[in-house]
Amino acid sequence: MKKYLKGLGVLVAFAAICSCAKHVPTLEERGYDFETFTMDGGKIAPETFVQIRDRLVQSAAEKKTILINASDGGDGFAALAIGILIHRYHWDVEVVGICPSSCANWIFPAGKTKYLNSQALLVFHGGPHQANWLEMGKQVDQMFAANGAPADSVELGRKDREGNVTWSPVSSPAREEVLKFLSIDKNAPAVEQMRQFMKASDRFYEELGVNPLLPEFGQIGRYEPSYKSDKYFGFVYPPDSLRKLGISNIELKEGEWHPERHPDYRNFYEVTYP
């Protein structure tokens, strides 16, 4: 089966539907000034990791910030790699608008100081401990073993409602940079890459002191019916629950936080931990 898998890339997508603009900004539009990386919509991709690494890591600025005006979530592997960079180099993270999925899972918790504007919205809807995680990887491997490498990408999972998997016949140089950074074997079967990703995510959360169930707690127990109802695109936590889950050093940019005032708030359900 490896002869079919070599050179392919697994994209673990954590994206939430929102009213954000779908335009993917250019480097100039994103506002690179070597102190700030600004997200203004579009999905997190392996190229995002390479750009942040090459711009901010090399910058001599004393204070650096990942500024999230809006995000559409995106590639979980890339977001985890970005989160590791943020934590390693002690960067801050500021959320102005919506920070969903991979953004909320790995980028926001990594900030040295985490700034929330008054209507900032953190949205979670799955991760590497969701119930169908490794099963999706097994399905990809079974499909490829039976049919060989596909002409088009294969997508599994409930898109925009949980962490889903896209296995692409093309692996970009940027994707290989992400896998190398995370010490994930690019030639491994899908299920093994996903298993290695799970371990890398768990190590990251342990280093941060964050509960590894942060992305999935709203899918289990009393929240499972909401998760499976298809009425919502994810869930949100109140401040006390974020703190109990281990997310510390949160500062309210305007002295208050009212995510319920965000126009997309009605698309999500509230989860209290524990």
**CATH topology category name of the largest domain:** 2-enoyl-CoA Hydratase, Chain A, domain 1
- Share of helical residues: 25-40%
Beta strand count: 12
SSE order, as H and E?
HEEHEEHEHEEHEEHHHEHEE
> Which sheet architecture does the biggest sheet show?
6 strands, parallel
Q: Overall 3D geometry?
A: globular
**Which class do the helix and strand fractions yield?**
alpha/beta
Mean residue pLDDT: 89
Cα-to-Cα separation, first versus last residue: 43 Å
**How much beta, percentage-wise?**
15-25%
Radius of gyration: 18 Å
3D architecture notes:
This protein is an alpha/beta fold and 274 residues long. It has two domains: 2-13 and 128-207, no CATH class; 17-126 and 209-270, Alpha-Beta Complex (2-enoyl-CoA Hydratase, Chain A, domain 1). The chain is 32% helix and 18% strand. It contains nine helices and twelve strands. The strands form three sheets. Strands 2, 3, 5, 6, 7 and 11 form a six-stranded parallel β-sheet that branches. A four-stranded antiparallel β-sheet has the order 4-1-9-8. Helix 2 (46-56) links the parallel strand 2 (36-40) and strand 3 (65-70). Helix 2 (46-56) packs parallel to helix 3 (76-88), helix 2 (46-56) packs across helix 6 and helix 3 packs parallel to helix 7. The radius of gyration is 18 Å and the shape is globular. The termini are far apart.
